[in-house]
Design brief:
The complex is a heterodimer. Helix content of chain A is 77%, strand content 0%. Chain A is built from 22 helices and no strands. The longest helix of chain A is centred in the middle third of the chain and has 51 residues, at 159-209. In chain B, 61% of the residues lie in helices and 0% in strands. Classes of the chains: A mainly alpha, B mainly alpha.
Chain lengths: 488, 75
């Protein structure tokens, strides 16, 4: 038995067990569209907590955060700041979103725009933007799976075949499980990840430096500037930090999958109480940064920071532990990837394809189309993953720059009567255009500001201007769902 | 939708001020507390304090009658 065989078979075993659990949890329920996408809207506190945590703890947490601590240093602190703030935002916006969702039986984010602004074109556009910007997120999960197999096989299996294999597993998992199965696999994944994160986060600094405090003392001695902004970068300073933290905390529940997962809750109070406790769950994040910083001193010459966590695990621990941690990492990529695929596919089939090209489709046909879409979208993400070498965190920030453009339409839509469809539509277009322009011309950050945040500001300005300029319509109040919903 | 009360919004803003807008005040290494550089210590501290702020915001909402807690989940 070679070390790589032991590690790889442990990873395969963990994936297999998780898939069986997912299959059984999913198979007990009849799979209509509502069951597949929102689990019949019957999840209590625990299951919603797990599902939402399942979205938080992705490859980004596991490999990306340590990778940025390794390669960028100080800028990685934005990760510790934005997570609690994201739950603050969710405390205020998810309960009303859920109320609307229950009242109108919404399944997707685009449904929300449809019911609030009464425009099929806007809803289809929101679906399109959502699907496009979910692709980098899906891509980073595949990159993560590829890295896990590459490191665990001691370089024996190249990243590209590993990613193709991973793609097949995740797609099969989505087909058989649906959202309920995924929520239960989240349970396994969260326990494993929690164990892995606490163990590595404490053991690695201890092994090489004698403790976390001593590790920091060594970093302060060797490279003090690495620990504060802008760290090892030139242009990710304090302005970038503020704008990125705002962008990502506003955008956290603008991901179509996060938005959709709020519909799975049993009550709006479930979501509110969830938001109160969720920041505690982020306590594994600093540990991941500690690992990245340790690796920076122990293994200073890695080609890519995203490799740092697994490489140091491989160097430090017996190979079965590498397998266990690799398996935890694999689930950490698979579960969110499955939710993202499911959401993107439902959005495409239900809110983009059916209203525009095939209005007569039944829900059953939509479900079938959604399954085909899963394959297409993941194949696109796979192609990007094979041909690009962007870091995991940068991929995530790219996605945020896109999905956060929904924020004005959602928040103003919930709490303001005045704002209307044309205003929101033009705001999103302005925001996305600004982001695309700044990123393609390599102006991110722009004068120190995160490009996505610049787009968001422009977006808000356009929404406000168009809302004020357009004459008030008599039908404004009847379009606004507040009156109907709060009177239940 | 019913808007949240001002009290709840206040408690929601506290973490934003603490970990975002005030970055220039706490992004430094010294003083080192519990072995952590000050910026790491500060951000980890607010992971623990944010739930307290949200709990306070929750109480404000219940107090104002905006929400009635937990009735639906008792079986």
């Amino acid at each position: 038995l070679t070390p790589s065989l032991i590690a790889l078979s442990m990873i395969a075993g963990i994936i297999l067990i998780a898939s069986v659990v997912g299959f059984y949890a999913g198979a007990r329920h009849k799979m209509d569209l509502e069951q597949w996408t929102v689990g019949g809207r019957g999840f209590g506190l625990v299951l919603v907590w797990l599902l939402m945590a399942g979205e938080v703890y992705t490859t980004f947490t596991f490999l990306g955060a340590s990778g940025w601590a390794y390669s960028r240093g100080g800028p990685a602190l934005y990760i510790l700041a934005y997570m609690p703030l994201a739950y603050v935002i969710s405390f205020f916006i998810l309960p009303p979103i859920w109320e609307v969702g229950r009242k109108y039986r919404l399944q997707t984010q685009a449904d929300f725009f449809q019911i609030r602004y009464g425009s099929k074109a806007l809803s289809a556009f929101v679906a399109l933007v959502g699907v496009v910007f979910i692709i980098p997120y899906l891509q980073l999960q595949l990159v993560g799976l590829g890295i896990i197999v590459e490191v665990s096989s001691f370089g024996g299996i190249h990243r590209t075949p590993a990613m193709i294999f991973a793609f097949a597993i995740v797609a099969a998992f989505v087909f058989t499980s649906g959202v309920r199965g995924i929520a239960w696999v989240s349970v396994i994944k969260d326990f494993l990840l929690l164990f892995a994160a606490v163990f590595i986060g404490i053991a690695v600094p201890y092994m090489y430096f004698g403790g976390i405090g001593k590790m920091f003392a060594a970093v302060i001695h060797a490279r003090p500037a690495h620990l504060v902004l802008p760290g090892a970068t030139k242009n990710l300073g304090q302005t970038w930090f503020i704008s990125t933290v705002l962008l990502t905390s506003f955008g956290f529940y603008m991901w179509p999958q996060g938005f959709g997962s709020s519909f799975t809750a049993k009550s709006s109070d479930t979501l509110r109480r969830n938001a109160v406790v969720m920041p505690l769950y982020g306590i594994t994040m600093p540990l991941m940064l500690f690992v990245g910083l340790s690796a920076m001193l122990v293994l200073p010459n890695l080609s890519n920071g995203d490799l740092s966590l697994l490489t140091i695990v491989r160097k430090s621990f017996p190979v079965w532990l590498l397998g266990l941690i690799g398996g935890a990492g694999a689930l950490t990529a698979m579960v969110p990837a499955a939710i993202q695929m499911l959401t993107a596919a439902t959005l495409f089939a239900k809110n983009l394809w059916r209203p525009i090209f095939a209005p007569t489709m039944s829900d059953q046909q939509v479900a079938t189309l959604a399954r085909i879409t899963v394959l297409v979208i993941t194949a696109i993400a796979l192609i990007f993953a094979v041909y690009s070498s962007v870091t995991i965190v940068s991929l995530l920030l790219l996605g945020y720059a896109g999905v956060t453009q929904f924020f004005p339409g959602v928040v103003l839509g919930l709490f303001s009567k005045r704002v209307n469809g044309p205003a929101v539509f033009s705001g999103i277009i302005a925001g996305i255009s600004a982001v695309t322009f700044l990123m393609l011309t390599r102006r991110d950050p722009w004068m120190g500001w995160n490009a996505g945040f610049v787009g968001l500001c422009l977006n808000f300005a356009v929404v406000a201007t168009v809302t004020v300029v357009l004459p008030r319509r008599a039908s404004e109040d009847t379009n606004f769902f507040a009156a109907k919903v709060s009177s239940i | 939708m019913k808007r949240p009360t001002l009290g709840a919004i206040f408690f929601g803003l506290v973490p934003f001020v603490a970990v975002c807008f005030s970055v220039s005040l706490w992004d430094r290494i010294h003083p080192i507390i519990l072995g952590l550089p000050f910026n790491f210590f500060w951000l980890i501290l607010w992971m623990l304090l944010t739930p307290l702020c949200l709990w306070a915001a929750y109480r404000m909402e219940v107090h104002s009658g905006n929400i009635s807690p937990a009735k639906k989940e008792i079986h």
